Amino acid sequence: MAYNVLIVEDQMMPRQLLEIFVGSSKNYSLVSSISNAALAIRFCQNETIDLILMDVMTEFGENGLDAAEEIKKQFPHIKIIIVTSMPEASWLSRARNIGVDSFWYKEIEGAPILEVMDRTMEGEHIYPDAPPKIQFGLADSSALTDREIEILRELQSGDSNTEIAERLNISAETVKFHIKNLLQKTGFHTRTELALQARSLGIVIR
To answer: Against a cut of 0.70, is the pTM above it?
Structure first.
């Protein structure tokens, strides 16, 4: 018997590729392919779903991890594989914490998606060791410390060093120190450039 699959992906080409992969295996049957993560919960309530291939950033700003968390609460038997191209580090840890079964990066060499699907349905949890490396100015994203990534995420807010420091329970001078280090590592000239480049590359998504 084939497993029923729901695809949640808002970009046309990746969605079509996932549809082709699902259709190429006798182990799976495509129930639907949608672009909005919030709708996935309704499908689970009204259809028999065994496996969801879920993007994180979907149509109208709906977050696939939020949807996955709710689905796991209501339907813990449904397997979920997060499928994303964004290297935002916090997504890996959050996915584990909410019970997502597996995590797969698009366009990154590794196990093919059908293999990940098969192993997930057999009860394995397939996770990468770390987000993919991204060139960030003169630096490699893997060279950034956890605190520097945290600062980059906070820079997305546009808040002052003092406001960021209060949220992180550190001093404004410490925030300034990390921003200076980030500028030196990357070769960027301003905090605004740091924030914009980090967001556009998907290194941090607030």
So the answer is: yes
